[in-house]
Write a structure and sequence with these properties.
The complex is a heterotrimer of chains A (165), B (371) and C (166). Chain A is 26% helix and 15% strand. The longest helix of chain A is centred in the N-terminal third of the chain and has 20 residues. Chain A has 165 residues and is an alpha+beta fold. The model of chain A has no long low-confidence stretch (mean pLDDT 86). Chain A has five helices and five strands. Chain B is built from twelve helices and two strands; from the N terminus they run αααββααααααααα. Helix content of chain C is 72%, strand content 0%. The mean pLDDT of chain C is 84. The chains are: A alpha+beta (165), B mainly alpha (371), C mainly alpha (166). Chains in contact: A-B, B-C. Chains B and C meet through helix 4 and helix 5 of B and helix 2 and helix 3 of C.
Chain lengths: 165, 371, 166
Amino acid sequence: MSARPPKRRRTPSLGKELVGLAKGLGTTFGEMLKPVITVAYPEDKTPRSERYRGRHYLRRYENGLERCIGCELCAAACPVGCILVVAAENTEQNRVSPGERYAKVYEINMLRCIFCGYCEEACPVQAIVLGPEYELSDTSRDKFIYTKEMLLEPDPIQLRAEDGS
Amino acid sequence: MTNLYNDPFWHWIVVLAAMLALLFSLVTATAYVVFLERVVIGHIQRRPGPNRVGPRGFLQMAVDGIKLVTKESFIPRNVDLFTYIAAPSIAVLAALLTWSVVPFAIWFGGVSYWIANVNIGILVIFAISAMNVYAIMLGGYSSNSKYSLLGGLRSAAQLISYEMSLGLSLVPIFIITGSLRLQTIEGWHGGLPLILVAPLSFVIYLISAVAETNRAPFDLPEAESELVGGYHTEYSGFKFAMFYLAEYMNITAVSAIATVVFLGGGSGPVLNWVLWLAIAVAVFLLLLWSRFVPPFGALVVAAIVFAFAGLDTPLFWFLIKVLAILFVYIWLRSTLPRLRYDMLMQLGWKVLLPLSIVNVIVTALVFVALT
Amino acid sequence: MATFIFLVAAAFCIAGAVGIVLFRDAIRSVLSLVAVMLALSSLYLMLSAQFIFAVQVIVYSGAVMVLFLFVIALMGPVREQPSTRLRFQGLLAVIVAGSFAGLVVAMLGGVRYHAPDKGAVLSTFGSVESIAYGLFTTYLYPFELTSLLLLVAAVGAIYMSRRERP
């Protein structure tokens, strides 16, 4: 390999440099006059898509029964294993869901969850869905174990009763 | 109204009061120069800048000051304690002393009062700014850290190199005006801006002044992305605040000197109160249109502008010109990338110094030819 | 007032001079020298030599001493070792200092103080204008020769410190 001749250094021309400087200064001055494009976050928020995958919800039927049947398919599908489901039998006295069984314990560890949405896909009864809420900060690790009470939608019948009263 | 300078007692009272007022307004103004910088740079980067504390973030600097003062002032192990503490003190002292000769005149009963009206004003400024090198050198040396030491040497070399072109850039002004007294230079031909006569001097002065105050694009002490900080790497809390304050005071002082020397200082059209009202209304409408401050804030600013009608015009024009130069500083900072150290030295020694010497010779020749 | 300022400046001067000799730390010695320079400059100012005052601060405290500081900062915190001193140095120092002090005392007796000349215009004495007038008229040739000498020295220093180019 033959040594290449050294590149001739570009001779700086004062005129070009000055034009460049003026261009740069003009650009920054123009940008200053344009409106601000940042979002004042806690007050204003950027729009989220309809299918945004945020915090989970456990849904109910119209009549107030829980959709979850305790099948544990979501826990099996979860790639990080953040879902814990402990199922229990429905009885005549205590009917929680329309199926045979219901979820007695349903916990999601939000620190582990990667919000992939596999649980939503695995669920045969569309009981668990990912909602639009994304502000999930808290002060302690324990508070990130979301229990069934926190995840469950409010009972529509109860809500209607409260509205009526 | 008699001239209060003639009475020895009142002379001291006036000078002391002026010094205290200047000290207070300088520290406050310095804080708001920082605020101005953050807001302007914010808008150039199309973000609003600080806007959380107080209306439009106007109290941000007070909060920052409280934070810096109450923060733990950490002293690293094995520092040279005396010089470690002396360095930031020298920085603030030099920055404050520079202001003593700036003709920051307050007109009162037809007589202008300044702190010092000295025969060798500009030489005094150079003498004081020479003291700045000590703050940087000692700060870097005493910190017992190789990064601080190298940063201090780097910045001191930069200061010494650019001091020459800074000094030489003003020599044509001395030739033209025939005086070193800042007040005489300011009032040359009734306040004719000298930039019209010596534009090259102004350009050299501005560039050297940027380098002299360690500002972007020559801000090697703050190049934390490329170099481990500079002479103030090991400083924190109140001592760091002193370096910071001194830096911004120097910037303001350098702008004030540029205003006095090149832009005619406080000279400008003398306005009657109708024109003041017009200016105040214009400011009010401009602020409303820009929606930068709420309507009430715009009213307050317009009222302050109108208050100058009752005060004096020179101070108003002086402040406007200083603000304009400060804006250029901030504008440059947000536009130009930082220079590499060898390029910095090349610019200083191979471009600015020969240019300023040629400038001196040409000005002298033209001056001799004309007179 | 003037006497008071003189006494303070003189005290700083002497204290600094003593400090230069006594400090073991090189950087302290340099700082003492700076203090001496600054005190001297204020003495010049009191003699209404404004220009000399400014030049003293700019050149001596601003440039020369900073170069000293550069060298010391680059060397690192080197302390003078007591063992490097000569054995008979103390005795020698006492003899030399004593004879110098005797010389000064003997000279002080012959000094005659007198008021400034009646003809001297104190308002322009020591101002930039009068010094410039002197430099460019009466003392033009010595001034130019001195600057030539300095130029030769600077060029010579650059030549000697220059490395041989291959």
